[in-house]
Amino acid sequence: MGWFKHWFGTRYYALLYGHRDEGDAELWVDAIMSQWSPSSGDRILDLACGRGRHARYFTEQGLKVTGVDISETSISEARVSVPDATFHVHDMREPFAHEDFDLGCCLFTSLGYFETLDDDRAVFRAVFDALRPGGRFVLDFMNSDLVVRDLVAAETLERSGIGFRIDRACEDGILVKRIHVKDGAEVHEFEERVQTLTPLELESMALEAGFLIEDRTNGPVLTPFDPERSDRFVLWMRKPVQ
Length: 242
Prior knowledge:
The structure is a single chain. By secondary structure, the chain is of the alpha/beta class. The chain has 2 domains: 3-143 and 198-238, Vaccinia Virus protein VP39 (Rossmann fold, 3-Layer(aba) Sandwich); 147-193, Single Sheet (N-terminal domain of TfIIb), CATH 2.20.25. The protein is 32% helix and 35% strand. The chain has 8 helices and 12 strands. It has helices at residues 3-7, 11-17, 21-36, 53-60, 72-81, 117-130, 144-149, 199-209, and strands at 43-47, 64-69, 86-89, 101-106, 131-142, 154-159, 162-171, 174-183, 186-195, 212-218, 223-224, 232-238. The longest helix is centred in the N-terminal third of the chain and has 16 residues, at 21-36. The radius of gyration is 17 Å and the shape is globular.
């Protein structure tokens, strides 16, 4: 599932998802600040940080941000757009730090891209090790059952004169999105593949890594998670003090 290495850094990815960037990012940061009330100067690890859209608002709230992402292009752009944060090209399955951070976040369904569940478990372990005792971690994932139930099989749209056709299917527990791009005379093909991880699977991974579960909500609006209605499954966790 190395698709993410080739897709995320492209300008087509930015065009397709750019409309979600600023307003959505600010809502998420406001929700996290409200849920946890961190102190100014607290250190936050932003996993799969992309071009730094959340990092910008975290820094404005007084947090010290370190963002990591596997895309070199995204990290290069993040360093320019958010100069007060620190960014690294890094695979979040690999250990990054030991008890250096007060907070961690993984937003916008940035898990489940890998070949096996062991890869997903490795992410939880890496974050657990990076947090100080008592540190907190929030994971934002799609509500897989709802997404599969309401799946839109095909969609066409245009962004800045570039045409996109998106075909979606669920294949053997993998949500597959095939993205066909028409840019003038050029045609490009991309693919996204995300495991349809369930809330129970995500909670099990968190508990196996050693986290305590504090809350489950729906998206950046902090309402309780409802498996029949919530678009998102957001898991709020804490690393035990001892």
